[in-house]
Amino acid sequence: MIVVMRPYATREEIQRVENRLQELGFNTHPIYGEVKTVIGAIGDKSRIEPFSLSNLPGVEAIVPILKPYKLVGRELKKEPSVVDVGGGVRFGGEELVVIAGPCAIEGEEQIYQVARAVKAAGAKVLRGGAFKPRSSPYSFQGLQEEGLKLLYQVKKDLGMQVITEVVDTRDVELVSRYSDILQIGARNMQNFRLLSECGKTKKPVLLKRGLSSTIEEWLMAAEYVMTEGDSRVILCERGIRTFETATRNTMDINAIPVVKELSHLPIIADPSHGTGNWKYVNATARAFIAAGADGLIIEVHPDPEHAASDGPQSLKPEVFDELMQVLKPIAQAIGRKL
Predict the structure, then answer these.
(1) Global confidence as pTM
(2) DSSP label at 40?
(3) Which residues have a Cβ under 8 Å from the Cβ of 15 and sit 6 or more positions away?
């Protein structure tokens, strides 16, 4: 439920209401405005009589939250969230954010070559997989901590924020030491223990949509992160599994306006995994920016033919640079910038 405080309610009145809610077993999430403050209360409503709260000083109204996702939805927070990941990079603001880099970190020369190229082209965040959950146990599984150290070194040398995937609850603390953003991949979207552990770090979390997940299931997964007190969640549409086999997945462009209506969280798109073919990445990227996505995550590799993973969907650096130039007028046409 939402406790709406009267205009200009004092901090003491707000704190008194929070304390009472916490005594009753609720988790509280105050949102302070210039004139009015609201307090989101998540817990068992059967333990409370709303009228008893209404009598507390400063309380204007008690409003039930109807959606199953309480913190992610717009009932509690009407305005779009802007997620600051450090280094001046903010998802959900006027400026679109592009994340780029190789699917997997293969070595020092490779990651530095890609990082310099994508930064020069305008990417703000460097991606690189250190732990690679693959469909086959015999496929390349990543450099693991060695890869994390390389990613962190590039961050320091080039001044870029970095993101990498965490695939196991046992690795959350390790990955958090090196990465600015924790990525939760499609296969782990409903790994609820992993979602909670990532939320406890309070670091920004990029949550990809599951292979066959509905939008509501995706938002409920984000709720697991946010119930741990982590409000910096970024959603990522990366295609869903359908009957179509011409592409790796089917990119759900509808997800952008639907999520923006249902949730205040920023949402980006991953045309690399969505299409599985570099030839279609540029067209799909243009479409998602036009549809209102807050950014993109794109795989870039200097030698895709010999990449350790996902070479067929990776752009060469020069192709990525061309894409960034093409996206600028599209962003400008919808009132954004790149």
Answers:
(1) 0.88
(2) E
(3) none
Contact predicate 91/334, CB 8 Å: no
Rg of the chain (C-alpha set): 21
CATH 2.60.40.10 fits 2-63, yes or no: no
Burial class (CB in 10 A: 0-12, 13-18, 19+), 335: exposed
Res 52: pLDDT: 75
Domain 83-333 has CATH 3.40.50.150: no
Instruction: Round to whole Å and give the CA distance between 260 and 55.
Output: 35
- Strand 90-91 relative to strand 205-208: parallel, antiparallel, unpaired? unpaired
φ, ψ of residue 121 in degrees (nearest 5) = -80, -15
- The domain spans of the chain are 2-63, 83-333
Kindly give, in sequence order, each residue whose CB lies less than 8 Å from that of residue 315, ignoring residues fewer than 6 positions away. Answer: 272, 278, 281, 282, 298, 299, 300, 301, 304, 323
The yes-or-no verdict on residue 136 having pLDDT over 90 is no
Look at residues 283, 223, 213 and name the one whose alpha carbon lies nearest to residue 255.
213
